[in-house]
Amino acid sequence: MNYYITDNTSTQSIALKDIPEVEYAALYEDLSERLKQEQYHIAHYFARPEQSRLMFYLILLDDEKHQIMVARFAMEYYDDIALPSLTALHPAVHPFEREIAELYNVEFGAMPWKKPLRFDENRRCRTSTIDTYPFYSIEGDSLHEVNVGPIHAGIIEPGAFRFTCNGENVLHLEIALGYQHRGVEDEFVATDNRLRQTLLSESIAGDSAIAHSSAFAMAVERLSNNKTSQRLQAERTIALELERMAMHIADTGALSMDVGYQLGQVACEALRTVTINTTQAWCGNRFGKGLIRPAGSNKPLTSEKIEMIRKNVEEVGRRYAEVSDDIKSSPTLLSRFEQCGIVPRTEMHRIGGVGMAARASGLGRDLRTSHPFAAYSTKLNHESITQHDGDVMARLMMRCQEVSQSVEYIKQLLATIDTTEAVPAPNYEQTLAPEHFAFGLVEGWRGEICHIAITNEEGKIDTYKVKEPSLHNWLALALAVRGEGISDFPICNKSFNLSYCGHDL
Questions:
Q1: Rounded to an integer, what distance in angstroms lies between the CA atom of residue 55 and that of residue 106?
Q2: Contact at 8 Å (CB) between 296 and 427?
Q3: What is the pLDDT of residues 77-118, one digit of tens each?
């Protein structure tokens, strides 16, 4: 099987003509065997119209060899021959095949789950709508259904959760998303204004503004063959780790709140505030908007800001460790968190779980190790933290340990910043290579983020694809609540803290 092979440290994009065009039968046969191995997983798989054909692009990651493998295949746009479904063999492929089928009416033979992924407004397949979709149902005198959503209070975004229960025990949970039609990917194509595109990347998921804007910057820098300095890469890594700290601390507080541990909730709210205020003192925005820009920065670190960040993260790390110790020594909390919401490693691998949730089940999916980028590839010798129980407690302990790790990484990187080294201003006018393909692969706090940009013959972006880690992990939440009491759904849900807007692009 012929792939174009590169890695995540390369600064160059790929000419479309250099991406091997293969037969689907050969790709199917190759992936059928490769995806049985944990070292391989799909970063993205999508289709787009090219002249009279529909072209499919696949980005496969080899986590052991640190390789990124790219291939493509084509079919006539109106060809009604069913493609053999990879989902039937490897459930991890389901979100990709579901999206392709929804958007382009491609038939995948023997595909076990043909539910539309998002019910996009501009899809070709209109055989079902979100209002008429037949949820999975089980009949039985002792069974009942509980529906939650799609309208949520406050700032939580819409999603519908349909529980099938036997008494208090959950037998099955089906999650329906796609109530928002933001058209994020189309907006990237609709403008050539690089600053506007950057602002769009920051708005994909507000709690991951730094991670998504980093992935966008990485993709366009590759398209312009721009080599960023090690200082700029270090500052971006510091920002990513600050975002990781803030969200892990926030989730610890939310989990504490869900079980009535008010001390943990209040303490974490205060510590999260200190963390995001640190980001605000650096760049003027608590969520890091305005910090990551293509080819440069408007907010380079100064000696004063370096000292401010170092002092704050040390204090937050010390105080958060005390909260973590209190949680680990509380029999009441342990009784709620331990052995609740278990997703075994084998299931995480089957469904393609990524990020922190996968690592809590012992599946070491972490781009910082397998496909290092920024300072992870130069100044940090990152070692992934894993747990093995795959329950709510494991996911909480992942947060506790990763916050401690982030504190040390930030301090280590701050010590390497030479403030006398000039940092260029952002460049929004750089020419992009025509008819090229580029990716941005970043490990956000939630997990693996992948941005894909493809340019046309004029060097303008005419296809932009985004993959957020929640795309894989919503199914893990559905598996986690099986056999649990429905009253445990809030803590299972919060232990994943998945993104509605990151899915509903």
A1: 12
A2: yes
A3: 766 788 999 999 999 999 999 999 999 989 999 999 888 888
- What DSSP element (H or E) covers 262? helix 262-283
Percentage of the chain beyond pLDDT 70 is 99
**Largest Cα span, the chain:** 74
CA 24/CA 29 separation, integer angstroms: 8
Q: DSSP code of 491?
A: H
Per the structure block, which two tokens stand in for 436?
């090229």
Ordered strands of the 436-443 beta sheet: 14-15, 436-443, 448-455, 461-467
pTM given for the model: 0.95
- Contact call for residues 440 and 213 (beta carbons, < 8 A): no
Sorted by sequence, the CB contacts under 8 Å of residue 208 that are 6+ apart come out as: 243, 247, 444, 445, 446, 449, 468, 499, 502
- Closest residue by Cα to residue 449 from 116, 179, 44, 126: 44
240-253: pLDDT as tens digits = 999 999 999 999 99
Backbone angles phi, psi at 171, to 5 degrees: -90, -35
Phi, psi of 351 (to 5 degrees): -90, -5
Amino acid letter, 142: S
Residue written as tokens 């095949």? 97
How far is residue 427's CA from residue 76's CA, in Å, rounded to a whole number?
A: 39
- Residues 6 or more apart whose CB falls under 8 angstroms from that of 270 comprise none
- What is the per-residue pLDDT across 389-422, written as a single tens digit (0 to 9) for each? 999 999 999 999 999 999 999 999 999 999 999 9
Answer whether residue 167 shows pLDDT above 70. yes
User: What's the rounded Cα separation, in Å, for the pair 500 and 177?
Assistant: 7
pLDDT confidence tier of residue 11, bands split at 50, 70 and 90: confident
Within 8 A by CB and 6+ apart from 249, the residues are 268, 271, 272, 275, 316, 320, 399, 403
Strand 67-76 with 83-84, pairing:
unpaired
Are 172 and 164 within 8 A, CB to CB?
Answer: yes
Task: Report how far residue 324's alpha carbon sits from residue 397's, in angstroms, rounded to the nearest whole number.
Answer: 8
Q: Percentage of the chain surpassing pLDDT 90?
A: 79
Give the gyration radius of the chain's Cα atoms: 22
DSSP assignments along 172-197, one per residue = EEEEE-------HHHHHHH---HHHH
What the chain holds in terms of domains, given with CATH numbers, is: 1-117 (3.30.460.80), 184-476 (1.10.645.10)
Query: How far apart are alpha carbons 417 and 410 in whole angstroms?
Result: 11
